[in-house]
Amino acid sequence: MAMRNAYIDQFPEEARVIRAALWSSFLALMIGGTLGLIQGLHRTNVLRFIPSQDYYTVLTAHGVLLVITFTIFFLVGIFTWAVTTSLDRGVKDIRFTWGWYAMMSLGTLLVGVSILGGVVDQIPMNADVLYTFYSPFQAHPAFYVGFVLFVVGTWLAGFDWFRTWWAWKKDNPDERIPLPTFMALTTMLFWYLSSIGVAISILAFLLPWSLGIIDSVNPLLTRTLFWFFGHPVVYFWLMPAYMLWYTMLPKLSGGKLFSDPLARVVFVLFLILSTPVGIHHQYLDPGIAEGFKFIAMTNTMFLLLPSLLTAFTVVASMEHGARQRGGEGYLSWLKALPWRDPAFTGMALAGLMFAAGGFSGMINAGLSINYLVHNSWWVVGHFHLTVGTAVALTFMAASYWFIPQLTGKEIWNRSLGLVQVVLWFIGMTFMSNAMHRAGLFGIPRRTAEPQYEGFSFDPAVGTVAEIDAQVALGAALLTLSVYLFITNMVLTTIGGSTSDAIPDNTYAGTLSGPEDSPAIIDNLKLWTSIAVVLVIIAYSLPLASIIDAGGLFGPGIDPWKPSVVVDPSLVLESVRGVMP
Ligand code: HAS
Ligand code: CU
């Protein structure tokens, strides 16, 4: 019998933590996806399960569960795989690893319960604050505390990977950082930098405000601190997907990664540029000077570069794979790709949709054209292509490869997996295209009742009813796709029998390896310092002027002034009054 060499055989202990993380992620996907269907049908008036007053609660749960819980639990699982596999060494202390997993779970529980309080009378809390949770919305303190625990859990996870790498470096002083580890570490570095913004926002302002320690906050300041974190977080979701496109797609295509140095440059660029662009979410905020917005726009346009490089490198690697498999011609090599493999097809379709999502992002990023699309359904279309497909579909597709690695079992039904990923692609084509169009003629986002009385939207092409029908149909197909995915994963894990035919735990080799790039590329300290300097340049003046105009806690407000004013002379007088 041939020796099986799957991940679970190499790292049985780590495999258990990663399985737990992925299952937390899948659970969030299932609940969050179901809530998405409720909203999609509600807004389009196709079917209404909830009163409109509860729409914000449902929307908050949908957003938080999908963009925070689903994505980040998957990330910590897959980065643990990446670091241990590419360094060929386990984590230092598995109890520590379980520790951060437990902390993230506890945080999720607190956040989840406080949101649930918005619709369950027995829970005396609410947190209808959307996943962007900046003031003037206010949540129960448990929401903020839970969020902090979750984020600190991710910080510790990063520390776990860093110290695994430090230990490896001691044994291998002259070697280049293996690519998957390089990707995990650079991603964590910009995550540390950017989550400082949300940490300050919560610990200095939102939590004390929600606890009643301070009476008011400066809304523009908490918004700005949120977006300081809120833009980089989108790349925090994207980087594990990129890692999978660079390390798994070429391999599944039957070839090698076109260029390891180019991949490193891409991750360095994300480390440097992810944070100083957050103001592109605030183009319409009054109180921030146009000049600062212009700087954010310029940085954003530079930030297109690493994604355009990725498009080139990943497609070139796929083409190399296809040609190894006998593919020929300018485009007919595409036919030689392994389209029956759900892991491959899901990731390739995710990449294809991201090309469209990237374009709508470029449009968002234009300072003047943003006025047309901001706060409209267009933006929702944009992020369902990016986080909702590039990331979500890649994660689901990759699971068809990873779950066998982590369980030692074959996928219960691979053909169903193929149907599932294609269904996602079709559903999202309907939904996101219709949302983009709807936004162009002004249909707003974030509302249960998009129709206003005495006012009608006039689409240049098509009708509102037709657009609504496409959104509802798309949402239904997407939800069906989620359930097919979950069913397949559950039956694989609890049903399937262990198999010896699980492929070895490896990732793609390279056509051009790390030795083709200068060693400075691996100098993480240098790139982090540059990132910090750019953040200071982009944010110090805007923050100073926001605080100057609106104070730390709102205009003219001294937070430490007690709300009951005690005037000493009055006290003296009253004391005198009772004296004989
Ligand atoms: Fe964005 C709003 C600009 C990327 C997520 N974005 C959002 C929001 C979310 C989000 C969630 O400048 C809403 C926030 C809210 O609630 O208010 N975004 C951009 C730009 C990019 C971008 C310039 N966004 C993302 C990614 C996200 C994401 C990635 C999640 C993961 N976005 C904005 C702006 C706003 C915004 C404004 C504010 C809008 C407003 O007014 O509120 C860029 O990073 C995009 C670069 C991407 C490309 C595409 C490259 C193509 C590739 C595909 C290769 C193909 C393959 C497959 C591999 C240039 C890499 C080939 C297949 C074969 C078969 C051959
Ligand atoms: Cu952004």
What does this entry show, briefly?
The chain is mainly α and 580 residues long. 68% of the residues lie in helices and 0% in strands.
Q: Can you describe what's shown?
A:
It contains 18 helices and no strands. It has 580 residues and is mainly alpha-helical. It has a single domain (11-575), classed as Cytochrome c oxidase-like, subunit I domain (Cytochrome C Oxidase, Chain A). The longest helix is centred in the first third of the chain and has 33 residues, at 55-87. The mean pLDDT is 94. The structure holds heme-as and copper (II) ion. Copper (II) ion binds next to helix 7.
List keywords for this structure.
globular, binds heme-as, single chain, 18 helices, 68% helix, Cytochrome C Oxidase, Chain A, mainly alpha, 580 residues, binds copper (II) ion
Write the layout of secondary structure elements.
Elements (H helix, E strand, L loop, with lengths): L6 H4 L1 H32 L11 H33 L6 H23 L24 H31 L7 H33 L7 H29 L1 H5 L6 H14 L16 H13 L1 H21 L17 H24 L4 H4 L3 H31 L6 H27 L23 H32 L28 H27 L17 H11 L2
Subcellular location: Membrane
Membrane topology: Multi-pass membrane protein
InterPro entries: Ba3-like_Oxidase_I, Cyt_c_oxase-like_su1_dom, Cyt_c_oxase-like_su1_sf, Cyt_C_Oxase_1, Cyt_c_Oxase_su1_BS
